[in-house]
Each structure stands twice: as C-alpha cells, then as structure tokens.
Amino acid sequence: MCNLPSLLFRPTRGVGSWGVLVVVFGLAVVPAGRAQAPSDTTQASSRYTVEETGTPLPDALDQFVSTTGIDLIYATKLVEGKTTRCHLEEALPSEALSCLLLGTGVMAQRRPSGRFVLVPRPDATRHTLSGFVVDAESGETLVGANLYVPALQRGTATNEHGFYSLTVPEEPVRLVVSYLGYEKKVRSLTLTSDRRLTVELSPSAVQAGSLKVTAEQRPLQHTTRTSTVEVSAAEAKAMPTLLGQTDLLKTLQRMPGVQPGVEGSSGLYVRGGTPDQNLTLLDGAPLYNVSHVFGFVSIFNPDIVQNAQLTKGGFPARYGGHLSSVVEVSVEDGNRKEFDVEGSLGVVASRLTVQGPIVEDKTSFLLSGRRTYLDWLMRGLSKEDLDGGYYFYDVNAKLNHRFSSSDRLFFNLYTGDDRYYNREDDGSSSSSYGWGNLTSTLRWNHVFGSRLFGSATVRYSQYQFTVKANDDMERGTYVLDYRSGIRDLGLKVNFDYDPNPQHAVRTGVDVTHHRFQPGATQYRNNSASGAQLDTTIAPSDPVRALDASAYVEDNVEWTKHFRTNIGLRASGFFVQGASYLSLQPRLSARYLLPRNWALKGAYAWMRQPIHLLTNSSVGLPTDLWVSSTDEVPPERSHQVTLGLSRSFQDVGVDVSLEGYGKLMHGLIEYEQGAAFRLSTDAEWKDQIETGRGWSYGAELLVRRTHGRTTGWLGYTLSWTRRQFDALNDGAPFPFRYDRRHKLTLTARHQLTDVTSLTATWSYRSGIAVTLPQARYRSPLINGFGTRTALEGAEDHPISDAFFTIARSYGERNGHRMRPYHRLDLGANFKWGNAEGFHALKTGVYNAYNRKNPFFLVTDQSSNREDTLQVRSISVLPVVPYVSYRFKF
Amino acid sequence: MTQLFRSVVFLLIGLISLTSMGGCDFQRSVTINGSGAPPKLVLNSEIIPGRPWRVDVSRSVGSYQAGNPSDSTFTVTDATVSILHGDQEQSQLRLDSLRQYSARQFLPEEGEQYTVRVSAPNLETATATDRVPHMPPTTLSSDLLSGEQNQRNRLLQFTIDDPPGVDNYYHIALQKRAFVRDSASIDTIGLTDVYFETSNRSIIEEMRNLGGLAESEFNFYVGRSAILTDVLFGGTRHTVRLRVNDQQSFLRSDPVPNDGFPRIEYRLYVSALSEDLYQFLHTRRLQNRTEENPFAEPVEVHSNVNGGYGIVAGRATDTLRVEVEE
Predict the structure, then answer these.
(1) A167 shares a domain with A106
(2) What is the ipTM score, two decimals?
C-alpha cells in the first residue's frame, strides 16, 4: 500500500478484504457534454471507506486506481495542484471516485471502451428533490426523518411537518432515507429537474416482533445541531417504568444534562434551569402544565406520540420564549389508509386510541383518551359511603385533510384535567380542585415549490386551576370560586427555504396574546338574616400581554468541513405600558475533524417573559404563571456549548461529549415564607425576589440505536448556583437540584422474536437542602406587646418574655441528601402480525429496594437530650408493575 | 404461547416476593457530620423609652448537640454588658436576681440610637445597635354595629398619624376587661386577649403569610395582634377598623338579661417598632409556621446582633383605652 498518510482506502469491515476483493463496477454511459458522475448499477458492490483530507488529488487517484484496478485516464494538468477533501464510509467505488472529485472542478466520464476519463466539470446543474417522508402503513408524516446522500456527504431532515428539501447535482446519487424505528430505504436516482418525491418507510421488523435491524440515524457529525437528544415512543414504551406507565418525560430525564426533580416526578431541570424554563410544544402548541398527579405522570399519551426531541442548548433562532430547553412532542396524524384501534390496561390508568381514514389517502382522524380509575377503585373498596376521590383524564383529537400534494390542513385538540372532589352525601357541601390544559391548533401546510415550504398555525392554549366550594349552613350558604391561569391566542407563520445546497433558510413570525389571571376569588355568603356578601377579590384586572417575535436562521455550508447555523430572533413583549424589546443572536457551528469527529460549538441568547411562581418541589397546581411587568423584567440567559461528536455507523453507536456554561438573569422566587394564597395572589409582585444563576458542566452520551442490544450511557458532571440579594445574605448558594454527578445506564436486549429484556440503573448525587446548624434562645412572641392581668403592670419587654428555641440555618442548600440510585428491570412480550399485536409489559421499579430520600424531616430527638434529629423519608420502595397493550 | 404465559407467571411471583421482602420501612435517620455551629452569644432585649435596661444573655448550641438553650443552663452569667450612646459608653449592666443584665442609671429616649456590647469568656464579642422610634399620635373610638348576637357587634376605630419621610412599622394587640355595672374598678376576670376581625389592607398584606386564621383566605384577618407597615399609607392619617364581639371570652353564668359584665374596657396596645424589631417579629412568625413543613424553604429569624444571635431592638408604646356599655 502506498504511503499516503492523509488518505486511506480500505474496504469497510465486514464487507470484504483486499485479497479477495471483487469490484463490480458499472458506470453509466454519459452523453457527451452532460455533467454526470459514474454510477453503480448494483447495490451489492463492495464498499470502501475513504478517510482523511487535504491529499493531493493525483496521489489520491493513484491510490484509487491501484486499489480498485479501474482504468482511469486523465490529463496531469487537469488534476495538478488540486486536493481532495473526502470523508466517506461504506461507499461504492463509483461513489468513492465521485467523492474524490467533489469540489475539484473535475468529473469522470465513461467511454465505450470501458475506460474512465476525467474531464473538466461544466458548471454544475442542480435540482431539488422535495416532498414528505411518511409511514408506509399509515401514511402519516414522519418528523425528523433523515435523508442523506453519502457521495455528497450532504443530507437533511424532515421538518416538524414531515417535509424535506434537498438540492443535489444533476448526476446519479444514492439517497438514504432513515428514521428511528423504521427500515432504512435506499434509492438511486438522477435528477434532471426539480422533483417531488414522497418516501414511504416501513416500521422496522423489531417493532413487529422480528429481529431485523432498525434504521441508522443521520450521523451526528453531519449536523450543526448541538445539545439535542431524541427519544422515540417505541424506546419509551420499552423502558421499565413506575406502575407500568410509559412516560416520555421520564425517559428524557435519563438523558445527560437533565436532572429529575423529586423521585417519581416528571419535571425536567435542564442544565440548571427549572421546569418552567422548558418550552414544551405538543405539535407546535405550547403547554403550561405537562403532568398529572402532582407531577408524577406526564400528560403525553404514549400510544399516539411519534417522538420527543429535547434541545438543551445551541437553540436555533426559531425557538424562543423560554431559557433552558425546548421539548417538542410530535403526535401521529391519524392513519390515512386503514382503521387502527390501540389500547392499554394498566394499574393506574387505561388508554384507548382509534384512528383511521375518513376519505382514504385524503382525510384521516385520530381520537385518543386516557383516564385513571383511582376514584372508582377507592369508592369500590371503601366500606363507608365515600363520595369523593381523585382522577385525571386526557383526550387527544386530530383531524387532517390533504387537499393536494401541496396543501394539507390539520386540526389538533388536546384537553386534560386533574380533579379532586369531595361531596357530602346529603349534598349540603362539596368542594373540588381542578387543573388542566386545553390546547388547540389549526395548521395549514403549503408547499410553494420544491425549495419553499410554508405553514401557518392559529393556536389557542389555556391552563387553569380552579377551586370550588359550597356549604349550606344553618345561617346561610357559602360559595367560593377561585380561578387562576393563563390563556394564549397565537398566530405563527413559518417558511423553510432552501435556495441552494449551501443554504437552508428558515424564517417566520410568531404573535401571541397572553391573558394572565394570577388569581381571582369570588366569595358569596348569603346569610339567613338577609346580610349578603358577594365579592370578587381580584385586586387587579387580568394582565394582558402581547408577545411578538420574528426570526431568521440560515444553515450555511461554508466548506465540506465547516458549517454554521446563524440566526437572529427579534422579539417584543408588551405589557401594561412596558415594552421589552430584544435581539437575540444565535450561532451554532460544526467543524469536521480528522477521523470523522465533529467539533461543535454554539451560543444562544434566550429571553423568557413569563414566569412560574412556585414554592414547592413538586408540580402543584397552585404554581402560578405570571407575566413580566414594568417592575419584573423578563428572565434572560446566555449559553455556550462546545463539544465533540461522532456516529460510528458500522456499530450503530453515537458518541457525544459536550461542555456548557449558562448564565441566567432575572430569575424570580417567592420571598422568604411567601406562598400561594387564594385571596391576594394578584399582588404576587410584592412577594418575590429577583436574582441570577449560573450553571456549567460536561455531558457524555454513548448511545446505541440499532441492533439486537440498544441503550445508552449518559453521564453529567455539573454545578449550578443561584444568587439573590435577599437570600443567603446575598451570597451564592447551590441550586436545589445541583447534582454533581448523574449517571444513567439503559439497556434493552431483544431476546427472541417475542421477548425483550430491559434494565436501567440511575445514580445521582443527593439534592441540596437547608438544615439548621444552631439553636438559640428566642422570645415567644405570642404575648408580645400585651400586659399581664396585673393592673398597672407594663407590657412585656422581650427580656421578660417566655423563651423558646429558634433555629439558625446555615448556608442555603448547604447540605446534601444521600445519593440516589435505583435499578429498574423489565421484560416485554410482544406478539402478533401485520394486522395487530398484543404486548405485555412487566417488571419491577427499584429492584433492590433502595430507600432513596424523598425529603428530610428535622425534629426534636426522642432521646430526651433536646437535640435535633434529621430523618429521611422515602416513598417508593420496590414496586412491581404489569401493563397490557393491544392493537388491531 | 403457553410457555410465554408460564414465564409471565414466574416473573410475577418473583416480583411479589421482592415486594414482600422490601417491607414498609420508609424512614431512616440521617447522620449529620459534626454537631453544628460553635456556640455564640445570644442577646435578647428591647430598648423602650423610659424603661430600665434589661438584657438577656445566653449562648447558642449546635443543632445536633444535646441541650435546651431556653433553659437556665445556657444563661451566660459571666458576661460584660455595656451600653453605648453613640460612641460613648453610658453604663455597664449587672447581673440581677432574674439572671439578666440590667441597669437603671440612665433610661433610653425616643429617637436615640444605642449599642449593646457583650463579651464573655470563650465566646466572640457580640454587639447590637438600634434606634428607638418615635410614637406618633394615635386615637381609638368605638361604635356599636347592628347584627346577630353571636357575631362581632362592635367596631373599634384606631387612627394613627403616620410620620412622613420615613418607613414606619407598627404592632397592635387588643385586650379587654369587663366590669359589673356600677362597679368602679373591680372586675372578676382580669385582662383577656380579644380576637378582632379586620379588612384593613395593610394588616392583611402583612399577616396573610404569617399564620393568620383561615379567614384570611377570604380577604379579612382575624387575630389577637398584628404587625403592619405604612407602605400603603405612609405619611398620612390612617384608620384601622377592628370588629370585635363584646361577649367574646366571657362566661355568662347567669343568662338573665342585664346581668353579666355590661361595662367593658378595650385596651389597644400600639407599638412603633424599629425596622429590626419588625423584621424579627415577621421572620419569627414565619419560622414558626414553616419549620414543620419539609417542603418549605426554611426561614432565618432576623437578628441585628453582630457576632451572635438574638434581637436588641427599639420600640415606643402607647396604650389606648375605650369603655363601652352593652
């Protein structure tokens, strides 16, 4: 082999070896004057890997000829002084040659003699391939499917509407289309004009029960996106879970950079942020409450979710309004070809989904519901006449219609509620607490041409918490009606424009009208004596605000090695006479290093004009969404990331290592002791403190996405601090979820056609809590300022008072709970055929019964030594689960 | 398929066994490294115009050490306690029979600033400085309300001329005593605390998070005392309306009309507080309310003692009386 340190041809492992290499090498006959590269006539040819860059083209061609034995003729002058920059894996010889010649101004032509001649490349003619990637069985669009042309090392992914646009030269190319959980599809095509192509992918055999491999992902090193992870619904369903409830958010919690809240909750604390700093989008519509059961079950029904994508940093300009992350959940559109019924029976809740065509291939619907039966069970098991309980439900409905290949209309509705209620048998009194979301979107997608895609969305979104109580008393009736919430009405228009292969432009505007109602109580008391009180307590009117933004971003390919996504988001938030305008620059860049490693960096300036006031560590409905005002400015953050990533496609492993730093301003918290109250929360501005925070750390993700054994290892090393003038004497203190280490190991092994085994092990450092460090004498203040019964006595000065004990706390969050670790095991059985399946999911949560601390209690010791003792309370021991799913 | 279900049954049996081994022991003690913070001086005193000086001096104890700092074993009896007026030392206090440090040589005055400095062997010297506030003019009046017997039937109106230009802090507490008709000065039950109800915005804003009664949820406050600031009425004349029940707390042994305690004297104790004292009262109530709640952020009680704990704070007081007859 020639000594060419920067260029290496070798057959790809597992395909063949040099000694026995048989190259089937067919080239298309190229008409004179047409610029066309050689092409393969078979997909069974041997594969080559071309590595390294900057090699002189003559040397590379020599190496190529000696390796492949191909008869290649060229003029020395034509290639002199030129270098090749080619990275290619598993390429056919023709692709390897095309790749070598890319960017050199030279092309290969095959002559009738079978010889290949290199000639100057005329000005390249390019055409655009565009269309949708859809599920072959249901016709539903697939969001985030990858399209990749290996020879060009160029690819794209379908947007959130399943649309793609890819511009390629007018020469034979091999297009690889893939999507997690689906069979890869390879198509060879030569474009002679712009072309619309809908690519249908079939669900991978693993899903249906066999052992064929799933599709490969688009290599990490080929995108500029950083800090982004994706979880498919299939992955989430396979994971062992608490009570068998599949939960997308809890699957995302297992990713590096994401800290869970307290055990069992589905809150995401991303890179030192709080759950309200996550922009959660359900088919593009924002959600303000993403969980049921006080944060323990996410609202996303796994039966209808396609996938969830979490972006932790390097935010493109299209995203805004929240500081820490974007969680995009895509829901199925509804089967356009046949009817499906899918359901699940679980210990806590059951689900049922029906979908199918209304007009085949044109109009389809999806209707899905889920409900707990805790209240029914409690009533059934109770020996007393219990008329009360708790339940949650959610309903998803979707309707979509295809007017033409260019126009589609979607209507999407989600509504879900949690409700706790209690009624007296005689109806004399009742009370109920309810909270939930209603969100609805109407979206029109239009393909303007092969390079321009547009969508317009009108959306309505609402979150409301209500308390209702009434009591019939002897002296009259009493009625309480409390409401707090947020209501949005918005319009969003987006355009995706791919003018040429070097640019992919996205632009759009987003206007949202918010109506905040931080709290209003109506209290009516009808006294039997005739005195009546009818009071609506809302010290200020609901706050109305307009949030408008426009963005533009351009994915630019500067060279084969260097790509950027440059963007700018301009936004304005207008509330109560105050205006907050900002220009938020965004930048992501990727540089391709030797050996196919990508160096990626990003910067993002984010701004968040709405806040969540919370004084609990669990997602209570009493948390209030409030607006920025003239006194409370929006939260802001700057985040930088830098990392290395690479996909090892031959073994199906993605590796990503990232460091990040984030600075946050304008964070708000309740002041000391302030808390939710029914009556006066419209004055929340007077109860908060504003401060800042910062977080930095490193994250490692090694993930295998296809093969018989899949899973990932995720590790996070991080530090997060907060600083408020009025807290901790103004000194920085650790954030509650400042966990130094977090390690997650997740594995799934397909044992047989029917059976798969899953296991996850999680470790994370203990969360930070504040504990007392000293006790001291302090006056009892109950009788402060009053006198004793003795006539003439003076009122008590403090020194005369009875004394009790006060506690002095040390550094806020200065103590750590015990580390958390847990093993979950599961076994999944799935059998069926193309018409449907049955699936049984069983396993155990917290398999070795680790007593992980949920909270700490500090109280007086029972040993009569008057010392304090701290007790750790655990809530979730080993918990088995079983759930059943079906589809027909 | 039979094999499949057999596997599932075996698995479930295994899971149930694991659960039964797990038990229900959800609590465990946590070992805290160290005993807590080292001991410091604790000073508790008020500086009230015209009243003798009296300072309670004790020492703190680490949270996880044995001992009750409210009992006498933690009183520091070998301290040197000095009072400074400005930079000038005015007096040294002596340990008295109550095991507190006191002096009568000179008395605090309104508007003046004083410093208490305490040193003791093996403990860091502690100092606390505060200014005695001025007591503004106040009045109290009474009106009878129509209503049911069991409801609050009297309105007490307390008016305060809030001094302009400074932030002012107040404390009010209500008591009463009752007299038999025609009895000039002798009552049989002594002073009792009185629950009052008020819709005063300043009080509601202040007390809503400090453990007021449940009625505070419905925009009125019920309590025996309250603290408030002048944020909503700074520099103006402000009236606070307190609704009370004349019969509250009186045990009427004889239900015969016109008997019982038909003559009642209400006493409203009004204090002008220094900011430190206000902060202490505010945070002390907060800590009482939150320390048993594991989900609440702990509250640090305000202290103006440098090098130690406790409160040494200025207060001016006034007692307003109004007499009513049934």
Answers:
(1) no
(2) 0.87
